Amino acid sequence: MPESSQNRNWSKLIYHENVLILDFGSQYTQLIARRVRELSVYCEIIPYYDAAEKIRETRPFGIILSGSPDSVIREGSPALPLELFKAELPVLGICYGLQLIAASLGGRVVSGGDRREFGKAIVDVSEQDMLWTDLPDQFQAWMSHGDRVETLPSGFKVLARSGGLIAAAGAPDRRIWGLQFHPEVVHTHHGTDILKNFLFKACGCKGDWTMAAFVQSTVDSISAKIGSDRAICGLSGGVDSTVAALLVHKAIGDRLTCVFVDNGLLRKNEYETVLQNFLERLHLKVVGVDARQKFLSRLRDVEDPEQKRKIIGEEFIRVFEEQAGVHGDPPFLVQGTLYPDVIESTSVRGPSAVIKSHHNVGGLPLDMKFQLIEPLRELFKDEVRKVGEELGVHSRFIYRQPFPGPGLAVRILGSVTPERLALLRDADAIVQEETERAGLLREIWQSFVVLLPIRSVGVMGDDRTYENVAALRIVTSMDGMTADWAKIPYEVLERISTRIVNEVRGINRVVYDITSKPPGTIEWE
Ligand code: XMP
User: Fold this and answer.
1) Which CATH architecture has domain 211-398?
2) Which is nearest to 165 in space by CA: 224, 221, 124, 217?
3) Is position 95 annotated as part of the catalytic site?
4) Nearest CA to ligand 1 atom 12
5) Choosing from 17, 44, 117, 184, which is the catalytic residue?
6) Which tens digit of pLDDT belongs to each residue from 119-153?
7) Domain boundaries, the chain
8) Which of 112, 202, 396, 430 satisfies CB 3.0 to 4.6 Å to 146 for a cystine?
């Protein structure tokens, strides 16, 4: 989709500062990006093999090399693009990044043997350096490496050690540094200070990535791109599509038509409530479409979750195309795609590492007629919420729990039927009521029910029952990339379970999911 990849560069119109994070496949790469953005510096994650082109194209202020599950000693492991050093930009290598710098410039990396480090370590600063500005001489850091740097390339010096091993090294006159530990994880004390010293002192960034600047530059680029044309936007009721629609509305006013589709996969009363809120509070031009039959008939007997996603993604587009015909044939379709969706759908490790097709990234039909406008594809969820606040959106919208595009279809394991949807809706409504009543909404990321494709035996009154099992999923998270199961009070769990079994005829057992992400995902699919 060439159009959507062009969208990535929109906001550069105003931002001057840009740092590139070369992804070598570490599980922490997104976390590095988050930390950099928390310091108000715009950054992008790119696969390491795209570095040369991206450096030419974006002229970044500096480069960060991520970690990797690979080993630089292994033949064929991801290598450092040599253009990197020709560009004479400040470079910070993290873990594998440090080892790669060392190995590429003539140093020696060896397998850790019994000297591998995982978990907390104490780092001793051995040489004063700009990276350590305002840091103590000793601090706790998080290590996760098997290999280690044994000999540094010439011109490099050891800047810190942990347990006698090299914990940080650099050639400050060439503006190259490397850390064996992970400054991006919270267990590394002062990790953010180290990144800040690199960005502000070595790269010369000032921190011009603010939400106000983002709104301004995005609205300008949308105006430039759409010109005097029209656009159509699919609203889901969640914060992402709402904020995306508002940005486009700011740029082109009522030439934007928003469509809110009842696909039959929404939660209880959701269609009516959300539609009313859009019209009364946000003053967008919104059309409601009842497409329940279309979606549900295409989903009949479909059990595979990826197939469900593809069908739903395609059906959404068909509804938008139909609506476009009625509303002046706009050539542009606005979507609330976020950065994590983009990252998860285009992994450096190739398609095998793609966990699922997010319906608004991986699942679009190839013959789609629209050009995409995705103003949020560079943002994390919490940044979108800040943009929403910047735009004056009511907190009820901003702090609404995320709800997947494919809706309840991914929370019914097995085939989706009207009967199972009704069961799930009733159970889900109880969870929403009880988590809200317990005042837990701000603490938790999501609370919902998954309807399992199994039945279990129970007793109610004097009767034996043989009914459905519901799994309760309540998680805390910053951005949905990682999550923990929520330790909510037993009394709340008890109330939810009792109410579901008593009030929802057809469910006789409730179980609580105590899996974090990773290794689990939030949705069960
Ligand atoms: P997973 O299940 O991948 O979910 O751990 C991470 C977060 O993303 C939400 N999610 C989606 N959001 N379209 C969306 O807009 C989708 O297709 C989609 N799938 C999952 C999920 O609810 C969780 O918050």
Assistant:
1) 3-Layer(aba) Sandwich (3.40)
2) 124
3) yes
4) 404
5) 184
6) 889 999 999 999 999 999 999 999 988 899 999 99
7) 9-202, 211-398, 417-512
8) 112
